[in-house]
């Protein structure tokens, strides 16, 4: 038995399957669910009987892989590299991954010290365009830092652009972050992020479905995104064009019943077009970490109310504000006209006008009253003028 209670046979079978099967293969996932990992591995090693749901050509390809797979070797190499293989039934396995059904990983290779299960319980995915704008990088880094400061784990794909900015934001705030790779966890990709991914492994976690030495492919990037969506309580897309892979993550999150959020950008930006489409399809608009936490966090974790600056006229008593609002923007008005506009008596209007004069808002002009220059600016700003 392993330390986590899973049998050695189960562990070795799943290590073997991680080398033979492609991530996200739902047909193979059904075999594992119906036959179990040990029996599925046995059949693939023997080559008979041919399991249902695959062509002869595909079956032959799987058997070729099976002949080359060596689970003991893969586990040995992983131990030497400080990498562990977490499988369903382990205490570190995140039950959130079970929501993927037959597309659930057979296991995850994990590099780093923290518990994957514990970190997944309070995590948010921040994803977006690789070729992001300065605005996108700024928003991703700000979100990453803000979420980390609030005790949330930032999960992303380790790529250039938004992913890297989100990871750096979390690390810069001294927080927790997880990179989910489409390659072996010993093969940092992209190469330019080798230093970043090594730092993530030291301070957080680097995880992946593929065994050590495996390289990413276009299809592996796409299926990797379902793991990001499943591991987290919600996904935030910062920038994404219409065909962005980050939208795959968001759609997967929606199918799994996770929160899906988008950060808006300029209406003229093609890199925000995918996000805006997502927002039209029931994703929630967010602009900072507080708004994200309000959605994914516990009851009472509310974002502060947004409001404009407090103007001096806001500090006036309601009756005085009504009298001030009754004065015309240009020219003077009689006390009677002001009283009618403020819906009060003439005596009350006059009393309020003298009060406003002492505060510098109005001045006498013959038999009438008019706004001072200070009041004109205050009233204009208060009414949203430009």
Note down, in words, how this protein is organized.
- With 386 residues, the protein is of the alpha/beta class.
- Among the domains are: 112-296, Rossmann fold (3-Layer(aba) Sandwich); 312-382, Orthogonal Bundle (Arc Repressor Mutant, subunit A).
- The protein has 17 helices and eleven strands.
- It has helices at residues 8-20, 26-35, 37-46, 56-68, 71-80, 116-120, 134-149, 162-172, 194-203, 218-231, 245-255, 270-280, 289-296, 318-326, 335-342, 346-358, 373-382, and strands at 83-86, 108-111, 123-127, 153-156, 177-181, 205-208, 234-237, 259-262, 284-285, 362-365, 368-371.
- The strands form two sheets. The protein has a nine-stranded mixed beta sheet, with helices on both faces.
- β10 (362-365) and β11 form a beta hairpin.
- α7 packs parallel to α8 (162-172), α14 packs across α16 and α15 (335-342) crosses α16 (346-358).
- The longest helix has 16 residues, at 134-149.
- It is elongated and about 105 Å long.
- The N and C termini lie far apart (73 Å).
- The model has no long low-confidence stretch (mean pLDDT 92).
Characteristics of this structure?
about 375 residues, alpha/beta, Rossmann fold, Arc Repressor Mutant, subunit A, two-stranded antiparallel sheet, elongated
Secondary-structure blueprint of this entry?
Layout: H1 8-20, H2 26-35, H3 37-46, H4 56-68, H5 71-80, E1 83-86, E2 108-111, H6 116-120, E3 123-127, H7 134-149, E4 153-156, H8 162-172, E5 177-181, H9 194-203, E6 205-208, H10 218-231, E7 234-237, H11 245-255, E8 259-262, H12 270-280, E9 284-285, H13 289-296, H14 318-326, H15 335-342, H16 346-358, E10 362-365, E11 368-371, H17 373-382
Parallel strand pairs: 3-4, 3-7, 4-5, 5-6, 7-8, 8-9
Antiparallel strand pairs: 1-2, 2-6, 10-11
């Amino acid at each position: 038995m392993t330390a986590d209670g899973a049998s050695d046979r189960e562990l070795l079978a799943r290590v073997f399957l991680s080398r033979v099967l492609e991530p996200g293969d739902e047909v193979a996932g059904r075999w594992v669910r119906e036959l179990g990992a040990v029996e599925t591995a046995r059949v693939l090693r023997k080559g008979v009987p041919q399991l249902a749901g695959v062509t002869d050509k595909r079956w032959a390809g799987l058997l070729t892989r099976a002949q080359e797979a060596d689970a003991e070797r893969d586990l040995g190499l992983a131990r030497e590299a400080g990498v562990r293989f977490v499988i369903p039934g382990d205490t570190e396995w995140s039950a959130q991954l079970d929501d993927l059904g037959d597309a659930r990983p057979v296991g995850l290779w994990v590099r780093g010290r923290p518990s994957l299960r514990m970190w997944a319980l309070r995590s948010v995915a921040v994803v977006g365009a690789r070729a992001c704008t300065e605005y996108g990088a700024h928003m991703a880094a700000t979100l990453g830092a803000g979420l980390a400061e609030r005790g949330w784990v930032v999960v992303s794909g380790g790529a250039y652009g938004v992913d890297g900015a989100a990871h750096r934001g979390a690390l810069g705030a001294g927080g927790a972050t997880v990179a989910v790779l489409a390659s072996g966890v010993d093969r940092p990709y992209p190469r330019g992020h080798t230093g970043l991914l090594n730092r993530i492994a030291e301070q957080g976690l680097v995880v992946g479905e593929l065994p050590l030495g495996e390289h990413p492919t276009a299809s592996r990037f796409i299926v990797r995104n379902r793991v990001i969506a499943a591991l987290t309580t919600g996904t935030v897309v910062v920038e994404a064009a219409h065909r962005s892979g980050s939208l795959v993550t968001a759609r997967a999150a929606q199918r799994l019943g996770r929160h899906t959020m988008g950060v808006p950008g300029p209406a003229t930006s093609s890199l925000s077009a995918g996000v805006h489409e997502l927002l039209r399809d029931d994703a929630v608009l967010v602009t900072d970490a507080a708004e994200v936490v309000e959605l994914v966090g516990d009851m009472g974790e509310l974002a502060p109310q947004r409001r404009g600056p407090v103007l001096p006229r806001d500090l006036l008593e309601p009756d005085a504000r009504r009298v001030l609002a009754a004065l015309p923007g240009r020219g003077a008005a009689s006390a009677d006209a002001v009283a009618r506009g403020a819906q009060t008596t003439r005596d009350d209007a006059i009393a309020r006008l003298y009060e406003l004069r002492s505060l510098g808002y109005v001045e006498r002009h013959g038999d009438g009253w008019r706004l001072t220059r200070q009041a004109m600016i205050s009233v204009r700003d208060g009414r949203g003028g430009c």
